[in-house]
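Illustration 12: DUF2797 domain-containing protein.
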Amino acid sequence: MVYTGVLTKMQTEFLEPIQYYLVFENDFIHVNQLLNKPVKMKLIGHQCLSCGLDRPIYRQGFCKTCFFDKPIAGDWIMRPELSTAHLGKEDRDLEYEKKVQLQPHIVYLANSSNVKVGVTRKSQVPTRWIDQGAHEAIEIVEVPNRYLAGVTEVALKDHVADKTNWRKMLKNDIEDVNLLEWRNNLKAHIPNEVKDYFIESNSETHLKFPVEQYPEKPNSLNIKKQMEYSGKLVGIKGQYLIFEDNTVFNIRANEGLVVELNV
Ligand SMILES: [Zn+2]
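Figure caption equivalent — predicted structure in token form:
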């Protein structure tokens, strides 16, 4: 079968193991069913996720113009502490920013290669953890807007990492830790304005990814350079496809590319 479409982050279902879907305009591909099968991928173009034009993708699936203009790519997306909708202050489009920022957010601990702190909209739990390839995670606080989540993350970053080591995550070079204990140790560093939002009773969420064989030395595929690739799919973790020859492909980092998949 040949499928053609623009890459966007895989949709997921929180089952054991996690189920992954590639959603193209005319096809819905259940990626778990491609495990142990040869897959051929060819780059055939670009399609900005905002304007839809065939322009080079700059960041996050957007062309350069959209990345710098559209409300969907404001700085507060990557840096939640810059959110200002709770003050009625516009960044690029106040209506859009109110809709996204003024809703329940979670600050969490996730362990993908090491314990890290992160922020997500409540509606994105556990999707966000799946996308990061975390094998365990726990919520710390639930706050009513993105700003409060952002300032909490900034305060906690002094005491816990905020980045994942993707190679370690893919190699499954991981250990189980007691996130409840981590959470309790961090409690003292939550900013005063957020202390009341601490979630008192909580337990770890465990995630199991569909991986048959972990790569020993993950080698990231640059499809823009290589233009095409063929390999046997042996796993899916985070937003990465893992192939038998140690090649890994980060779907999320390649959003906006139009590909032809031959499976
Ligand atoms: Zn665009």
